[in-house]
Structure formats: structure tokens, C-alpha cells
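Bug #77: duplicate submission created two jobs. Keeping one. Sequence:
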Amino acid sequence: MPSFSLPQKLTQCRLTETKRLERNSLIYSQGETAQVFYFLQRGLVGLYHSLENGKETLIRLYHANQYFGFRTLFSDTDYHCTARVLQDAEIVRIHPVSKAVFLAENPQFSQYLIKQLANELYDAEHRLTNTAYKRSYERVIEAITNLTENYPDYPWTYREVAEFCGCETETAIRISRELKKQGILDKSQRHLKICE
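Kept job's structure:
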């Protein structure tokens, strides 16, 4: 991570650091108005979108040294997702004194956020295409592979895998059982893990 992108290097803003947020701590809720954006120093945070029927979808994950919540703040909209801590976290809240002045006074950082935004859009488009054109079986395998390789210290559940790849929990369980029988998933592990 480039040093100019660290929160302490930013100008025209106030920073507030948290000591520690435990698993399942709520950072913000879907529908709230954004006042700040966040930098994750340590831990893992999930963004969840709730449908009218109450079903949640795991939209995106953030790990240490990533920013989140900035799209909503700079677009002057309400949060479209709920942010919740998945692994104990330390977070810095960044409150720009003025959004326009903040972006103008931190040009390298603004470019950094645009790059992160572009990468997240790419990921979202890729996942949307997978949901539309790939079978559940392929989506579950890709989700398990992606989640366990990129976040190996987190104990992924069938429900979280299902939320991440856009299927029902029962479907993720059924497919995972098939994968264990085929030797693709490790039977000896309590948590989901692809065999090496």
C-alpha cells in the first residue's frame, strides 16, 4: 500500500480510530446516511444487502488496508448495504471537512480510490455474469475457492458461501457434500477448504 494512501497522510479530514470491534459488530446499516468513510486497519468486514423478504446477500469483503463506505459518501446517497465485522477489527473513521475540498487536497488518494472503485466494479460485473450464466455447482466451487484462498483464516460457513455466490444455503450444502465425495473439498477439515 503506498504511503500517501494511509489515513494519517490525508488532509482536510478528521480521523477517529476504534480500539477493537468484535465479530458481528455493526459498522453501519443499510439505509443510513453516510457521514464518514472507513479504513480497515485489521480484521475482516462484510457488506450485506438485505432484500424486502429479509434475505441477505454477501456483496463484498474488505480486509486489512482497504477503504470502504466511500462510494456512498461521495455519491451523496444512503448506504445500500450493511457493514458488519466478520473477524475482530480495528477501523479508522475518516470524516472529510468538505468532500470537494478533501478530494482536491488529496489528489493521489483520489486516484487511489478511483482505482479501488474500478477493481470493485470489475469484481461485481464478474460475479453478476457468473450468477447469470454459470450453474450453481460452478458458482459454489468458485466461491469456496475464492473465499478460502483470499481469506484463509476465516471459517467460512455454507450460508456465507451461498450468500456470496447467489444460491440457497441448502444448495451450497448439497454441492459441498458432492465435492467432499469427489475429493475436491477436504473432509478432514471442520471448515470449508479445497484439497491441495
